[in-house]
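step 4 of 6: structure.
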Amino acid sequence: MSEALAVVETAGTGTPVPAVSGARQFWRRLRAQRAALVAAAVVALLVLVALAAPLLTALEGQDPTTYHPTLIDSARGGVPIGSFGGVSADHWLGVEPQTGRDMFARLVYGARVSLGVALAATVVQIAIGVTVGVAAALGNRWVDQLLSRATDIIVSMPLMIMSLALLAIVPASFPRPVLVTLVIGLIAWGSIAKIVRAQTLSLKGLDYVSAARLSGWGTWRIARRELLPGLAAPVITYAALLVPANISVEAALSFLGVGVKPPTPSWGQMLTAADVWYQAAPQYLLLPAGALFVTVLALTVLGDGVRTALDPRAASRLRVGTGRKDTTGTENATGKTPENAADGAARGAAGSANEKEASA
Amino acid sequence: MRQPSVIARRVAAASVSLVVAAGAAACGPEDNDAKGSGGDSTPHKGGTLTVLNSQPQSDFDPARLYTSGGGNVPSLVFRTLTTRNRENGAAGTKVVPDLATDTGRPNKDATVWTYTLKKGLKYEDGSPITSADIKYGIERSFAPELSGGAPYLRDWLVGAADYQGPYKDKKGLSAIETPDSRTIVFHLNKPEGEFPYLATQTQFTPVPRSKDTGTKYESHPVSSGPYKVVKNENDGEHLVLERNTQWSAATDEERKAYPDRIDVRSGLDSSVINQRLSASQGADAAAVTTDTNLGPAELAKVTGDKQLAARVGTGHFGYTDYLAFNPKVKPFDNPKVRQAVAYAIDRSSVVNAAGGSALAEPATTFLPNQKSFGYTPYDPFPAGKSGNPAKAKELLKQAGYSGGLTITLTHSNSKDFETSPEIATAVQDALKKAGIAVKLQGLEDNDYRDKIHSVKTEPGLFLAHWGADWPSGGPFLAPIFDGRQIVKDGANFNTGQLNDKSVNDEIDAINKLTDLDAAAQRWGALDKKIGDEALVVPLFHPVYKRLYGKDVKNIVISDWTGVLDISQVSVK
């Protein structure tokens, strides 16, 4: 709470900040949002855990697939023996009902699938979306019509149903995580293509782009040198929000039994198996659900932070790294920052903190 | 039962039979018969029994129902020539007379069966039940628009193969004679010693010709049993039965019919059913289910609560879950490879995957572990409790796979704890220890069924299960191992594609026996002989646990159905 306040207060000191380069400016603005920083740290930790899964499980002395029949009560449906799902020095988060497989190992290995698939699918979505969006905006009428209608079709297709259909017809020999990545990536690029097309169209009309065109630059060069830097902000922002959405989709697909195949653990798959156990062995459900919740929340908050840091208007309200003195900023420095409170998750925290402080 | 069919036309019946088989799972004698039937010496008569089910009583027409022993709810309305003995446990696998005075009088080679009806039998409108009505009921079941029943009658009755039912073919079936109003004679095209079992199915229910309304008959079938239908909404989703005053207990030794009213509510989610039964509030206190088991997680919760645990019945039903090989697919053409898999199986981890020791019993025989099936214990490839990977490796070496082996296991993606990913993963884990790497091929359930039951697409190794139409070795072994039942085009259940003359001949020989105990023994011996071929690896026999409401008394669960028999319960 005090941290959140501190943001506003440092922001409110009105210290003159020298003009800086785009990237550094972005970092300064991002750093100014504590919630986004915490989220970034959480995301970094999760990625680290996923990468270090073999090390971590080796440290625990377990692996995600070995059955431990002695750790479950077969006569009672296979519920783990011991409290909190059989938590012990050997099994840090207990064991899975019916099999006795180590929950910690399954959770950290599951992170690899969930994060890996989501990040890779986002890359695919961005690549296709940006290409189609820019091409539609720069191409002639026919190209634009064709690509825009194609985008409309993609946007109107229900993601889950299409994924289920595609996953059902592809031969089982195809590696599943790659397949899930491709399916999500190839189906859900419509919105980003639309955003990119719209942004490109507005950039195209700006003087510096016209100037480039008048000086005889080719379309490709203009796109690369003049347009892409301008598209970076919306694309990065959108990407940051796509990642958590993709994690949810992967979890849902695995939940429906068409995601990664057993015994490879994934959070979605763990949720499927665990849903009936919510009363008898709640930790079995809570662990993957909690991991999914924390990851999606962290990524969403981070995404929002990125958006704020890249948005010049929001940044001016942050009054960080804009490189100009702001008189209205000093007014707001009292801590009553209503427009801040209304501006996304990061700001919401700061705003409510202020209110509580005021009422105290 | 669950996959009862042998020929393509039987596939349609499979879905219906599923309902009934699911209905054939249950509640338990050993846990609570003392509690249920003891205490009050005379069960209370009257009240309303609520039945909470997931599957509706759809097509509630005796011609269309596919049941084991006449079903549970259907048998309250439909009486048949014979029926199952309504007693706990093994005694309940006996076939006993119902409308008939005995279980049938065969001629010497069991091709002609004669039945005599009891005196004083009446329909719900007071009119008498005659043998001609039973003949008519059977004839109706041949009408294409009233399909759904078991295929046996078409296969067994003389000249019935192409019969199209009484609406198209007024002459009727000459294979069934009714010399007088109380006598009915069946002529079969081959010896069938188990005909009395078949006569328990609802197709043997009398249907008065004058009241037959064809496909509309299901909305109000004329009752011959202790209850009549007073309401049937949404094709059996909500069925209300009330006492049939014309039914006389003097002619019916089997049905007790204590409650005045039976309210069957279906289409409920299984977790909702178990939740309602455990809460046992209001009308649910006098509620039972005839088709919903406790799952592993629910069992874990129930066993932690003494009051709930006292309201759980345990039932056995003749059923086996197994690994099936297709010997036409390499490397399973090599018996040593099949044996290696059999040795490597860890039955304790498979049992745990199926819900633990309370919900599954490890199986080494294909026949269910019940006397009536002719259960003869054997274990040709002893894997012990948790597998014998050393022996498996040795066999693989002999088969030329000393460097290990990679195989594919096909399974369904349904959450049934029978052919589902949990079981497949447990098998995979066990085989890994024997140096066999298993790739899992999980298919959508319908796709899975189509694939495993077609000779052309049958995978090399897959999870399968089988249940019998009645508690005997015949309907259990013949469809799976009789070489003449291999279906090239259509649904094939002889997945091992075994066509061994000695096996086929033995099946014929046993079918001639009318002494069912003697037949059972020979089925058991045949099972053992086939077991040596390692065409299947029996995994487990499921056990059913069922909750019932706190006001439900007089619990009877037979090994025939494994279900709490609703013709026996009373409610307070």
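step 5 of 6: annotate
 - The first strand of chain B starts at residue 48 and ends at 52.
 - The CA atoms of residues 299 and 444 of chain B lie 27 Å apart.
step 6 of 6: archive
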